[in-house]
Design goal:
The protein is mostly helical. Helices cover about 55% and strands about 5% of the residues.
């Protein structure tokens, strides 16, 4: 409907000219609106199709030989008139309160014109996104995570290997397999790095200082420098993971290291599930409990290798 509004306004502006032009050509990429202008059947934008035909009739009365064309074009670029029509379409799609035009009169009180379903859905989606950002902003530490500016996902991460992408987002939010996080969740007794024995294994440590991944870190920060002009000393991990320009370099780093992954062998990662530190510790505790129970009973109960010979078989053998 918004495209029909724009076409009607273009014809209205042409009809208002003091000198009626010999030719009026309108370019639009809305094929449905173009067809609606020539149709008398009811449908979306019918009101504006009728208005457009009235303006066309007015132009023809003012100048009988005038040529009026509505042409479809695949894009707006390079056609000033079409870009102007697109601008009016956007204005028509805004809230009536914001643009201050076109209110239905005659009732108990003025009411705004109905909006298209697509615009209403877009408004709902935008409102949900804003509410989600406000909710997350109150619960996320700004030191560890930077909220994205738009709701569009990072295409580089979305198109990568699923397991690597999962590790990327885990590290980005800070909920990842690092010594610091596992100690905070009480799944490890200390935050010590299990590769270089540094006192605390954080995201900054594994991406910048861990001796186990020196070569991979050099490649990572070399690529980051090419894309952003910033080095490791001036690039907090929070900003690195939030910058879409660095996503490919970070994904390559994760795919060539065991950062954020418990299983050390990258081949085994694709064929078997990853056991968490909590599962390993839980299994160990269960084994210790079984051993303690066996000792309490006095001895380990072992299943005999051979069962005793039944009595009737034993008597048969003696005979």
């Amino acid at each position: 409907m918004a495209e029909c509004v724009a076409l009607a306004r273009v014809l209205e502006e042409a009809a208002k000219c003091q000198t009626v032009p010999k030719r009026v050509t309108i370019f639009t990429d809305a094929l449905a609106a173009t067809r609606q202008m020539a149709s008398k059947e009811p449908g979306p934008g019918q009101k504006y199709a009728i208005l457009a035909r009235r303006h066309i009739a007015k132009l023809r009365r003012a100048r009988p030989g005038i040529t009026i064309e509505i042409r479809w074009c695949p894009a707006h670029k390079g056609i000033p008139g079409s870009e102007k029509a697109d601008e009016w379409v956007k204005i028509a799609a805004e809230k009536p309160e914001a643009r201050g035009v076109e209110w239905l009169q005659g009732g108990a009180r003025p009411v705004p014109l109905p909006r298209s379903l697509a615009h209403i859905k877009h408004e709902i989606s935008t409102k949900k996104w804003d509410e989600a950002r406000q909710w997350a902003g109150k619960r996320i530490s700004a030191k560890k995570y930077r909220m994205p500016r738009t709701q569009q996902p990072d295409k580089t991460v979305a198109g990568s290997n699923k397991r690597v992408a999962a590790r990327f987002y885990q590290i980005k939010t800070g909920h990842c397999l690092t010594g610091q996080y596992l100690e905070w969740t009480e799944n490890r007794t200390s935050a010590q790095c299990w590769w270089c024995r540094c006192k605390e294994q954080t995201r900054e440590h594994v991406f910048k200082n861990c001796g186990q991944w020196k070569e991979q870190q050099k490649v990572l920060w070399k690529e980051v420098w090419k894309e952003t002009g910033r080095g490791r000393s001036w690039f907090p991990i929070r900003d690195l993971l939030a910058d879409n320009r660095c996503s490919r370099a970070v994904l390559d780093f994760l795919s060539t290291t065991d950062v954020g992954r418990l299983a050390p062998d990258p081949v085994e990662e694709d064929v078997q599930s990853e056991a968490s530190e909590w599962e390993v510790r839980k299994r160990r505790e269960q084994e210790e409990e079984r051993e303690a129970e066996t000792e309490r009973l006095g001895a380990e109960v072992e299943e005999p290798l051979f069962l005793p010979t039944p009595a009737f078989l034993a008597s048969a053998e003696e005979e």
